Amino acid sequence: QIYAYLTRVIQTTKFSEHLKERLGQAAPGHDPVSATYSIRAPWPGVQLYYPPVKYLPREERYESKIEAADRLRKYAAANEAHTVIFDLEDGCRQKAMSRAFLAEMLPTIRAAIPGRVAIRINPMGSAENHLDLRLITEIGSCIDDVMLAKATENYGIDELHELGNHLSRSAKTLRIQPIIEHPRSLRNAPAIFACDAVEHVVFGIHDFSRALHLQISPEHWIDELYPYMCELTLEARIAGKGVIGGVETLLLDREPPEKNLLPEWLSGHACDNARIIYEHARREALMGYTGKQVIHPNHIRLIRYAFQPHNEDLHRSLRILQEAVKANAFLGGAVRFEDEMMDPPMFAKALQTILRAIMLGFRDKNLAAICEEIIAGLPEDKLPEIWPYPVR
Q: How many CB atoms lie within 10 A of CB 255?
């Protein structure tokens, strides 16, 4: 019966001549370089930690509220990150002042921030957390995501249920991004991913390694934590959720150039730290991560480039899809492509490459229409196999 069903699905899945024509035009001649990237993207993407009130080390003092407001107005619209994170936890010393600042400023400045806005709150049950939740109730309409530090470490999965119930009473539906910062949280991963309000989790590599008494290095942490990354990624894929990668602590000596100059810059002009950060981000992207956090603005452009499929990847994926659709082999059958034999898993990965670019803000109506038409022609039960991520 199963064989008969699959045979029937394969035989009845037909792609339109219109799609074949679109692919025929796009595969050989379409130039993704001309498309633009939007800061506002469906996925968390590059997430920048932004201190509401900043410490000024040269002057050995914190900003005044006026200085903090001027800084926010100056950088809000110019920011290139997909998400701005206002940190109220470990990176925030002046917590009360920061909450008061956000309550006053965020409603007036939110429209100028082009991407998503997240707030990282203190662990559930703490005195600071109660004050954080009060702030969210007050300015919930200005926020997209709530990042929960030390998620499930103290009270287990009940923490997320309590937070979810609180957020459900806000002005709009807010997403929770739990931060996995302890082996206990990793063990709770299946239950965490099962929460409806959770679409992506964050791998908090520095707290996680501290809890393990594992000494990691800024140059090699991705190898040193690789087994745990794989475990978290496996749980995410089973649940159809996303993972946001670790923060890099290495600093750059200068701002990376514009996107079209990055390949040459990386190959011959970038400092070692830039190459290391790029390679880490590229590996996380190839593992299917849906974003990465940064602590310095000059990391943003480099990590965006690492996470977005490169132009040669998009060109090759289009040509693979053209061959699959032409042979009506997307769900069954094999074709020769260049010097490889390819079958449905390879076709699906080509589609994933283009979808990934779109979810990270790649704006190209032609590619989006091609993806939509391919997806519309597939049985619903096949879609989770091809695209095991949140799509909102």
A: 11
